Amino acid sequence: MCFLQKRLDCKEPLNINGNMTQVTREKRCESMLMAGIQNLLVSQDVFTHETFTVKVLEILMLLEREAYLKGSQGCNDIGNGSYPRSFKALNKNSLLINIPRTRSGYFKPMTIELKCNKNK
Question: Which pTM value belongs to this model?
Answer without folding.
Answer: 0.70
